[in-house]
Amino acid sequence: MYTSVKSTKLTLYVTYGFCVLLAGMMIGVVPALNWIFGTRQFTNVCVIAFYTCTPAAWTALISIIKLLKNVLTDRIFSVESVKILRLLSWCCAFVSVVSFIAMFFFRLLFVFWLGAGLMMLILRVLKNVLARAVEIKEENELTV
Fold it and tell me: pTM of this prediction?
C-alpha cells in the first residue's frame, strides 16, 4: 500500500544510491568520457566542469538527505527546511554558472546550464512558498 512515509523512505534510499553513483563517477569519469567522446578536447572541458561541480553535487545530496529526514520526523515547516531549500537552489545556481562558462568550449553543456538554471528557479519558488508557510505556522502558534 502506498503511503507518504514509504515514498519518502524510497526517495531517501534513491538519494543514497546517487551518493554511491557520484562517488563512482568521481573515480571513473575520465575513462567514461574518453570512451564516449573519443577526443581529448571535449573530455578535458567536461572533466574540469565535472570536478568543479562535484562539491555542489555532494552538498546538494547531503542537503536532500537532511530534508528527507526532516520530512520523516515531521519537521517539514521549519526554518531549517527553508535553509536547506535555499542551499539547494544555490548549488543549482553554481552548477548553472559553471555550465554556462564551459558551454563556450563544449556546446552540449548548454543542456546542463538550462537544466540547472530551471531547477534553481523551481527550488527558489518552493523555498519562498515554504518560507511563507513557516511564517503562517508561527503566527498560528502564537494565536490563543
Answer: 0.88
